[in-house]
Amino acid sequence: MKKMTVFLATVCLAVLGLSAHAGEGYVLNMYHFNMQYVAGSDKAAAEGTKKGLEPLLDLYLKHPDWKADFEMQAQYLDYMAANFPQVLDKLKKLAKNGQAEMVSFHYSDQLLLAFPRLDEERSLQLTKEIFSKHGIPLSGVIFTQEAQMGEGLCALGKKWGYSIAVMTAGPYNWFQDDPGLPYFDCRGLALLKAENPDIPPEQEKIEDVNGVKVKWYFLGDGELVVTGGISPYFGALFQANKGRIKKVEDDFAKLQQEGYKIATISEYVDALRRSKIEPRPMKPILDAPWRPEDDSGVFTWMGKYVMPGEDDWGIRTQNWQTRSWLVAAEKAGISWDQLRESWKNQLDAEVSDSTGWYPLPVELRYSPEKSRMVVDAVKKLCPACQPGELKLELEKIAPKALPVAAEVTGAQKSELKFFSVKDRAGLFAVEAKIKAGADTSLTFPLRGNELVYSPALLEDQVARIPLDRIKPSDFYVGAPNGLAGLGQDLWLIRDNQAGTVALGMDMVNKQIHFRVQKASGKEIFYRVYIFKGSEKDALEFANALNQTGQ
User: What's the pTM value of the predicted model, to 2 decimals?
Assistant: First the structure.
């Protein structure tokens, strides 16, 4: 969560002198720790552990009545066991005595919203195995890298035994502009809407429902808590700050005097339930990370180029090409035990930070290196395996024969080709070869009055959101099966192995588009299918084309 480096630089705020004379009061902290803070950097992982995580664990060990939520990717436990066993022992002690509610919903800090449920199923399998191996209890709470959230996370979380999901206030309010009650029902999970702790004291709002109060003290990168907002990016400046640690201690002590418990998210949700506070139905949302105003969905990781050498299109397309080798191996009967390490590498390749806020050279190398390891391993395990693809024969047609217009804007150079698919009535294709300009899009008109797509991790379903039920904006989703409804029984399906960036939904201009920004000179290719037919048939084709496992 790289933007948190800036917005949480002064995260430990002065606490208001609010009293809790009646009812219950809970102070919540969600510490997100990330051994891939600088993906591929052993030094950053070590520094984050020694100077960010361990001092915070020591603080909680010093105060046995303080509790908090610690979120991290599952592989962090293996990393600590191999490199910092003393830190893992401290974390295990806090977890076993109930002080650290351990939160983990992925093996690696993946861009969950960009890949299919199959990948996350493998990730969760690894997560369960690793926590069990180290004897650390795994909570039923979901919070993820970049605070990614969508209905699919709730649905899959319920299947895997999770019970509570945490969503930052930004996405919910962005879509709904509706502060509402503190929690909602999301596909059978209690969805807790976390409030932003980084606001001026005079604007701070203490939620109080039926006498149950909550104050969010910290929500973000845990590495920043004891350093006063300095991240592992800043080298020697990244140090534990005794003054900052004392401020946290003083603030917590004061809150306890006022009647608050330094508690876990599960304890707070239990209090809401004891008080007969029922979660209300959730209004429509789109798949989103934690700050829509900054990234407009997943665009930051799937189309928005920031650093020299950044390659969102190349890395995310390679992710899809590489996973096709794993899908082929599984279909060939290669066992989980044989593929476990390759799936670890695939999930590492899907990490968010290789295409994130400002990826460094080491991060730009990280995903491609992991992808090569996957392909090499599968070739050895299964010499006969080949990356699977749907065999379709394309026949060139005139542009006017396509049932919908396609346009490239902002390119230095572009070429569009149009096809029908042999022996597949109502199925067409558009291929776009582009030399990108400063802001380049492949655009299709949205004919209907609703947004239609498959949410991430729900590729077997289609969500329909009327445009008048959601705030208008230009928003970007990962669309793992590549599907979007254009209206009038017309469907767009992105061929992910051919070229992948985010699927943009421009609700104002009523367009669906694929966009790269600040990618001048980059060679970009897309193959997009246009399908005329039923929702059921379109969904079946999208999942078969992109090998989602549905």
Answer: 0.93
